[in-house]
């Protein structure tokens, strides 16, 4: 049994993304509509995800495009306000992801009581956001310093829109990441949000580190649930829950229910 059962309540867990619209300071923030509009959108999506039966949610500033690797204070403050106001509505375990800043993600987790964070903790990358460096040793020491040792760390080892500066096989990345850092989970992604995670790559990672939780991080859909969950220990799901399967749309509760029914069937649970 993995930690997913203890923290989220089930194996083969589905962590649903609750994407925040552009926030104060972001290029696409709508100052006329203000934070109330961002909050209303987030609340609608959260309620739809929970009504649809997801196992957990992860709040992220998905529309803070283009992303920073050293996130500014106003972003974290805005996210904390939103999660704080949503707290009475949250009925499932939740995590946070401040794109793309591992320390700020941990800061937000401590402030809100999040159970897990997903981030790029290791590696040096050539990315759409420039040369992208990390410092995992400093990050995990920061985790301990702020009292976040109980927060689970989900290591994204195939960052979206980026690749290692020096070519490395995925098996080497998985093996060294686990040996050096003892991550709580490895996340394997496609190229962008909504892009299917390559099942062959997913299997190579899981075969290399069988005792570590491995999550399909992008692109799980109704038509590939069985194939992906046969390999992965769970998944992070965002775009497929949106109306028409489009990244920029609201969550569609009917799509969530249909997907989760398929997941429950896979887990051997009788769905009415």
How would you describe the overall organization of this protein?
This protein has 272 residues and is an alpha/beta fold. The protein has a single domain (3-266), classed as FMN-linked oxidoreductases (TIM Barrel), CATH 3.20.20. Helices cover 37% and strands 17% of the residues. It has helices at residues 3-7, 34-52, 73-86, 102-112, 136-145, 170-181, 199-208, 225-229, 253-266, and strands at residues 13-19, 56-60, 94-97, 116-119, 125-127, 130-132, 152-156, 162-164, 185-188, 213-216, 234-237. α3 (73-86) packs parallel to α4 and α6 packs across α7 (199-208). The longest helix is centred in the N-terminal third of the chain and has 19 residues, at 34-52. It is globular. The two termini are 27 Å apart. The mean pLDDT is 95. Pfam families: BtpA. This is BtpA/SgcQ family protein. Belongs to the BtpA family.
Helix content: 25-40%
Global structural class: alpha/beta
Rg over CA atoms, rounded to whole Å, is: 17 Å
| Number of strand elements | 11
The H/E string reads HEHEHEHEEEHEEHEHEHEH
Going by CATH, the architecture would be: Alpha-Beta Barrel
Identify the overall geometry: globular
């Amino acid at each position: 049994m993995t930690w997913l059962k203890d923290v989220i309540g089930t194996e083969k867990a589905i962590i649903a993304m609750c994407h925040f619209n552009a926030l104060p300071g972001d290029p696409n923030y709508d100052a006329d509509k203000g934070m109330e509009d961002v909050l209303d959108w987030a609340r609608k999506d959260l309620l739809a995800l929970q009504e649809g039966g997801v196992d957990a949610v992860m709040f992220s500033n998905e529309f803070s495009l283009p992303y920073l690797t050293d996130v500014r204070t106003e972003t974290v403050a805005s996210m904390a306000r939103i999660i704080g106001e949503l707290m009475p509505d949250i009925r499932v375990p939740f995590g946070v992801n401040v794109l793309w800043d591992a320390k700020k993600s941990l800061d937000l987790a401590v402030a809100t009581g999040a159970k897990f964070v997903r981030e790029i903790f290791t590696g040096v990358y050539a990315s759409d956001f420039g040369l992208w460096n990390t410092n995992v040793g400093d990050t995990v020491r920061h985790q301990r310093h702020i009292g976040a040792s109980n927060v689970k760390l989900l290591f994204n080892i195939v960052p979206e829109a980026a690749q290692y500066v020096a070519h490395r096989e995925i098996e080497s990345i998985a093996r060294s990441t686990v040996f050096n850092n003892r991550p709580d989970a490895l996340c394997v992604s496609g190229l962008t949000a909504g892009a299917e995670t390559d099942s062959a790559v997913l299997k190579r990672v899981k075969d290399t580190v069988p005792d570590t939780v491995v999550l399909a991080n992008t692109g799980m859909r109704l038509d590939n649930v069985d194939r992906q969950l046969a390999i992965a220990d769970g998944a992070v799901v965002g775009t497929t829950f949106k109306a028409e399967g489009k990244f920029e749309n609201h969550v569609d509760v009917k799509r969530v229910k249909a997907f989760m029914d398929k997941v429950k069937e896979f887990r051997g649970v009788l769905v009415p």
